[in-house]
Each structure stands twice: as structure tokens, then as C-alpha cells.
């Protein structure tokens, strides 16, 4: 993650563990491997070594949204689940529904990073963001969320890269219109 700039751009320290991420299409995320938006369009299953009595936060961002005007504020939130008991993501509180990768045509490879943090305590509700809305997803800063909820360093993480394919206009029409 250091060589790809994820550290220190998005998080300060390397996660202790590797997050297992498998998509319904059958592909598994391997650190830095290129996947297509078509392969990652549906919400994946995610697992990590968790304590059964602890709560966790999972979030996924694309830090490579092109923005000449604000190059330091260019993350897009793709998925956020808080108050996950153990590693039972389905039992957590979804704040931002999962949206797949949608790098605009001509912008090259984008990094998609997924992290899990052990929460120091329960997080009170954030505003819900449906998968059909861009509100609350653009110009996100992962570090701000980490500080706000005192999450510290991620306990697990993974990342992949993707670039434009024929699925992107479908996703864009669902989320940004």
C-alpha cells in the first residue's frame, strides 16, 4: 500500500491484516490487481479476523477522482458500514450503500481501497446514503472520518485498481443523475 501511495494519502499506517473481498462475479480482490467495473458492480462479501464482541467500521473509497480545482479533496465514498458486530457485515448499520467502480472514460486506472477499523465504541447514526445518490459521497476525506470517530489505524485492508469499461455509464446514470 505504500508503493501505491495509499499510505500516507488515505491512511497513515499499514493495516495489520488482509481483508478478504470476494465479488458475486467470482473475482477476489488481490492487493493492487486490476479488476473491471463489470466484475465489481455488485456488493462483495468481506471477511477479516474479528473479535466477536467488538464493533467495526468498513469503508471503501476511490481516491483518484480527477479534480484540478481541489486535488486534496477528491475521494468518492463507495461503501460505508458502521457498528458491525464481529465480521458480520450484514448485521452492521449501512450508512452508504455499496456502489461499484465507475472511473470516468479517459482517466486511466483508479485505486479502490477498502478498510476495516475496530471501533472504540458504538457510532451514533450517520445520514443514510442510498446507492442512487451522490450526495455525501463526493469530496470525502477518509482521514476526517477516522479522526471524527477515533478509529485509529485500520485492522485490515485491501485494494484493487479499475478503469473505464462499458458498465460505467450504467452506474453513472444510477448514481449521478
Write up what this structure looks like.
- It is a single chain.
- The protein is mainly β and 177 residues long.
- It has one domain: Alpha-Beta Complex (Phosphatidylethanolamine-binding Protein), CATH 3.90.280.10.
- Helix content is 11%, strand content 28%.
- It contains 3 helices and 9 strands.
- It has helices at 6-9, 142-148, 168-175; strands at 17-18, 20-22, 45-47, 55-62, 75-85, 93-96, 110-118, 138-140, 156-162.
- Strands 1, 4, 5, 6, 7, 8 and 9 form a 7-stranded mixed sheet that branches.
- The radius of gyration is 15 Å and the shape is globular.
- The termini are far apart.
How would you briefly describe this protein structure?
With 177 residues, the protein is mainly beta. The protein has one domain: Phosphatidylethanolamine-binding Protein (Alpha-Beta Complex), CATH 3.90.280.10.
Task: Give the arrangement of secondary structure elements.
Blueprint: H1 6-9, E1 17-18, E2 20-22, E3 45-47, E4 55-62, E5 75-85, E6 93-96, E7 110-118, E8 138-140, H2 142-148, E9 156-162, H3 168-175
Parallel strand pairs: 1-9
Antiparallel strand pairs: 2-3, 4-5, 4-7, 5-6, 5-8, 7-9
Pfam families: PBP (PF01161)
Family: Belongs to the phosphatidylethanolamine-binding protein family.
Organism: Bactrocera dorsalis
Amino acid at each position: 500500500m505504500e508503493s501505491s501511495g495509499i499510505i500516507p494519502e488515505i491512511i497513515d499506517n499499514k493495516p495489520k491484516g488482509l481483508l478478504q473481498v470476494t465479488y458475486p462475479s467470482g473475482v477476489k480482490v488481490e492487493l493492487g490487481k486490476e479488476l473491471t467495473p463489470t466484475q465489481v458492480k455488485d456488493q462483495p462479501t468481506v471477511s477479516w479476523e474479528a473479535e466477536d464482541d467488538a464493533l467495526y467500521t468498513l469503508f471503501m473509497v476511490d481516491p483518484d477522482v480527477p479534480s484540478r480545482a481541489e486535488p486534496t479533496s477528491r475521494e468518492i465514498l463507495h461503501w460505508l458500514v458502521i457498528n458491525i458486530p464481529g465480521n458480520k457485515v450484514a448485521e452492521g448499520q449501512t450508512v452508504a450503500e455499496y456502489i461499484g467502480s465507475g472511473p470516468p472514460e479517459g482517466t486511466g486506472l483508479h485505486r479502490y481501497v477498502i478498510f476495516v477499523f475496530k471501533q472504540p465504541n458504538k457510532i451514533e447514526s450517520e445520514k443514510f446514503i442510498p446507492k442512487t445518490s451522490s450526495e455525501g459521497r463526493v469530496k470525502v476525506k477518509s482521514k476526517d472520518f477516522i479522526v471524527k470517530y477515533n478509529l485509529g489505524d485500520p485492522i485490515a485492508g485491501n485494494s484493487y485498481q479499475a478503469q473505464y469499461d462499458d458498465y460505467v455509464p450504467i452506474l453513472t446514470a444510477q448514481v449521478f443523475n
